[in-house]
Amino acid sequence: MKRLLTLLLLLAVALPASAQKEKVVERSAKKAPAWLGISCPDYFTVSATAPTLDQAQKQCLTDIRQHIITSIASNITSEEKLYQEQTARNGVVSLLNSYASEVGTTGASMPYLCDISLSRALGVYWERRFVKQEKSYYYIYHVQYPFTDADRSAAIAAFRALDNEHLERLEQLEEQFETFTDLSFLDQTAAALNPLIDYFFDTDRRNRAVNLQQRCRQACGEVAIVPDSASLGCYCYHLALHGRRVTSDRQPRLESDYATNLRVVPLDGGYALLYDEAGIEGEENFITMTYTFGGRRLQHRVVFDPTEGKLAVRPFGTVEIDAFGPGADSVATWRISVPLRSNNDTRFEVRHVDIRVPEFGAAAQGSLAGYAFEGKGVHTLRFTASVPQVTPARRSVLLNGTLSIVGADGRQTDVRFNLPYRLNFTNR
How far apart are CA 390 and CA 323, in angstroms? Predict the structure, then answer.
């Protein structure tokens, strides 16, 4: 009984082993080379298994790259001098183990690793094997790869140069961020930081790069438009960031319902918004400027007064008319008082008048002389006119008229108006 149990136990162990028995059905050489599984100062070996020969080759290349990176990392960390040097540069050495694990990303940037190829191998040997139980095939691939002390030193030097280059670039961008004056720096730097963020395998330097990129994007929303001076048709301003004067070659979007021929031109380190005014007196006339920096909108409203610097005279209130007559010739005399409001101190003269009262079908018109006014505020135009007919024709509460006004610069402006009036008859 005991012998039977022993036999059954042996069979239970032996059967799986026999089931997994493999057979070499194809090989690259008649005999396996002596270097299999051996590494020395001048070379090392790697092996990989895969369902296909191509997959096994690619895995060997990955393992070769991993071996070289690990060797570089271990050699660097073992050098006290370099350790001291790198510790002063944010503790890079203490984090090289992390670098060794980043084969697929950071490691690919090293010049030496870019030259890894099976064509450089000292030896290659592979076998195709058949697994009886699974009735399947697989490949096992072996590579003898050269990696001398000279190769290792060259790779270490290449890593140090590459790492210093990336760190120096980061430090340069950090320094420039504090002094730049061209806003294109923000977009360019945000883009330039992407490969640095991808490269840095340590938390400290990666965080520095990420933080700088965030500051660039945030700064795009902190640009301000600072007015310098303004006059009708020209609004001067500059761009500022954190109190520092900055420039941009980007043109703002300009919109206005009240101005035409809008454009922005550089002027003395800033800009001038030029426009032709076509505003409406008594309304808020404005131009909207919109800049876009890094996807952030900066909007600024420029309000202007269309009467600024111009002769601005308007009749207002109620026109008073004192009518005398008519006489034997059926002609009445009207003494007319028209209130005027001037918006500036410019001197002006009323040279011609044309007032029509629809109710009477009458018109008071003619040239005037010596009707000059000066100063900002309210003035009264008083003149006398002969009116041939005063018989009411139809009821009306408004009269309409036109005044020809000449400013101090000699330019004439015709001012049209519609106002209520009061007609007072005498000796009718």
Answer: 9
